[in-house]
Structure formats: C-alpha cells, structure tokens
Design brief:
Number of domains: 1
Shape: elongated
Protein name: Group II truncated hemoglobin
Number of helices: 9
InterPro entries: GlbO/GLB3-like, Globin-like_sf, Globin/Proto, Hemoglobin_trunc
Keywords: Heme, Iron, Metal-binding, Transport
Order of helices and strands: HHHHHHHHH
Structural class: mainly alpha
Organism: Catenovulum sediminis
Low-confidence stretches: none
Family: Belongs to the truncated hemoglobin family. Group II subfamily.
Radius of gyration: 18 Å
Mean pLDDT: 93
C-alpha cells in the first residue's frame, strides 16, 4: 500500500562481476586468455613449467572456479567441492616471482576481456590478494 502511495520502488540488484564481464562466455574467455598468455609469453615460462601439459583440463577447471568466484554458478564446487585453493596448491612451490608472473598473465587477460576500468582494477586487486595467498616458498 505504501509503495503505491509514495511510488517506492525496490532498487535494482547490482550486477555481479560474472554478469558484468559477460556471464558464461566472458568468464570462459577470461580463463582461456589467461592461459593463452601463460603459454605464449616467454616471461611466463617459469610459471608455465609447473603446470601439467596439455592444459585442456586445467583451463576448464579454472573457468569453473572463476564462474563461482565471480558470482556466477558454482560449477567448481558442484564438481569438486570447496576450492581450498591454498591446500590444492601446496604440492607446488609457489614463490613471489610466480605470483608476479601469474598476475602478468591475468592482468593481460583482464585488459582484453574486461572493458569496465573500475571493475578491472577491482578484479586485479582481488586476484593479487588471492595469488599472494598462494605463496608457499621464498
């Protein structure tokens, strides 16, 4: 009754990062461009070297992880359970250099895929925090 009387409208729900980058297709593109840069940028070779080849399955798992992490469907959790990223990465020696190389590839992918500068900066900050959390060796 009050809504009609005073023309009160519910605010629009803000879009998730997943929706802002184009949903499933944008997330898929981001995941794959990230690995494209890792495979093709000679600077990223030390990072590429710790990844199992071929990388088809890891590309798919990263897409599934990003889907939920960006606010879309929790594809990774539905298949594999909670990501437990740090625990999953403990068998690999991850240094600050590898974090920086990871960010080099991710920043290039974000630059290509995410048009919104504010969202891109927010994602860069979040990815940096996440990548830093993975460091387990000097």
């Amino acid at each position: 009754m009050l809504k009609k009387l005073f023309k009160i409208e519910e605010p629009n729900k803000p879009l998730t990062p997943y929706e802002q980058i184009g949903g499933e297709q944008g997330t898929y593109t981001l995941a794959n461009r990230f690995y494209d840069f890792m495979q093709n940028d000679p600077h990223a070779k030390p990072l590429l070297d710790i990844h199992p080849q071929p990388m088809d399955s890891i590309r798919q798992r990263f897409f599934e992880f990003l889907s939920g992490w960006l606010g879309g469907p929790p594809l990774f959790e539905e298949k594999y359970g909670h990501p437990r990223l740090r625990a999953r990465h403990l068998p690999f020696k991850i240094t600050r250099l590898q974090r920086d190389l990871w960010m080099l590839c991710m920043n290039q992918a974000l630059e290509e895929v995410v048009d919104n500068k504010l969202l891109r900066r927010q994602l860069q900050a979040s990815f940096y925090q996440l990548a830093t959390h993975m460091i387990n060796s000097d």
